[in-house]
Amino acid sequence: MVKIITDSTCDLGVKRMEELGLEVISLAVNFGEESYYDLIDINTDTLYEKIKEKKMLPKTAAVPIMTYMDVFQKYVDMGYEVVFMGISKSMSRSFENAILAAREVNEDKIFIVDSMNLSTGIGLLLLKACKYRDQGDDAKTIAEKLNVDNKRVLSQFAIEKMEHLHKGGRCSSVARIAATLLKIKPIIAVRDGKMHVMKKPIGKMKVALDVMIKQILQDKDRLDTDHIFITNSHGREHSDYIYGVLSKELPGIDIICTDAGCVISTHCGEGTVGILYMVKE
Asked: Which run of H or of E encompasses 95?
């Protein structure tokens, strides 16, 4: 038996994760001394309410080693092999904590995979993992396949407002002012496990959305046709626009729209929307 475990940054939505039989470990969102756990006692709506109320941006915290140990031990004791995959090791200490926890519990039964991604970039890989599990692969085989698949995920997000990137230390005050004056809507891409500024389209948000749409359509002939995700943080109108275009241009592909959780929302802010997909080897 194989148990697939992830963290709350995968943005698949509680219902879908339950249907897939995933165990989910929540990351903490901290407003000063107040801590909330994503998907448990805070969601994206509440997050933005608290940001306005407290006039401060929260910080996200890595999952502690003991939390991983408790969850891993539970499933090993039940006779499961475990595959864990959460946020990219380049973006959080959570990955290293999971490695340390696996060593403490049972390295032979627990396989830790670096998603090299965030949000539904992880979600795409989790859907693959569940497919491998359901076809009878053991945990080691699933982990080996995921360590190939993780290099095929392409994720990009258009940022509508620069405030969160600025307050989170990901852009300078000068860059923020310049971007605001020039109406730049940066597109952040995840490649090799890290976030990079891919393009800086100028104008309304639709310009940035069209840049992302153009990119995926350029990749049309090498798309992995299982799933495409469109993930937004209070940017439903942007998500609907992208879905309308892609559903016509890419018929037959399962296009899934999801809402971003508290982690990506904390770092990217309201209006952010991404297109996440996989390409063939």
From this structure: helix 94-105
Return d(Cα 159, Cα 28) in angstroms, integer.
23
* CA quadruple 20, 25, 30, 34: dihedral sign: positive
Nearest to 258, CA basis, from 240, 244, 270? 240
In the predicted model, is pLDDT for residue 182 greater than 70? no
Nearest CA-CA partner of 117 in 99, 141, 92, 97 = 92
> 127 vs 18, 172, 263, 278, CA distance in Å?
13, 37, 20, 12
pTM (global) more than 0.70 = yes
Q: Diameter of the chain by CA atoms?
A: 58
Q: Which of 10, 216, 257, 9 is nearest to 128 (CA)?
A: 10
Q: Helix or strand or coil: residue 89?
A: coil
The CA R_g of the chain, rounded to the nearest whole Å, is: 19
